[in-house]
Structures are given as structure tokens and as C-alpha cells.
Amino acid sequence: TREEYMNTLNGFKAKNNFFERNATSWLPLNNVDIPEQMDWRDDGLVTAVKDQGSCGSCRSFSTTGSLEG
User: Fold this and answer.
1) Is the pLDDT at 44 greater than 80, yes or no?
2) Cβ(22)–Cβ(16) under 8 Å?
3) Contact assessment for residue 46 and residue 68, using Cβ atoms and an 8 Å cutoff
4) How far is the C-alpha of 65 from the C-alpha of 57, rounded, in Å?
5) What is the reported pTM?
6) What is the DSSP string of the chain?
């Protein structure tokens, strides 16, 4: 199967019934006010988009992007 093929590629060795025994259910949160939308820029949680250009600093831009979210 596709799942078996992918497990072979990534080295994960699942035991019998691993996924069935370790399954979890998502439960909705009660009494929590979650906004319909949120713009992280309004709260200063992310910075503006940067242009890497052709300077070859892809590692720096990638690291910064992953840290900022």
C-alpha cells in the first residue's frame, strides 16, 4: 500500500495496531472566545515580506521565515 511504501522511505517502523491504539479525538473548546479572523500584522507578530533578490542568502531568509511563523 501507499502507507507501507511511505513508511519504508521514512524509516518509521510501526508495530501492529500502532495507529489504532494511539488515536486521539479532537474535541471543540467550550467557553473560549475565538475571533472569526485575526491579522497577525496588526499585533506586530510578523514582519513585512522581504525580497531576497539574488544575494544568495536563502538560508538566512529561510531561517528567519521559519522563526517568525
Assistant:
1) yes
2) no
3) yes
4) 12
5) 0.31
6) -HHHHHHHHHT--PPTTHHHHT-----PPSS----S---TTTTT-SPPP---TTSS-HHHHHHHHHHH-
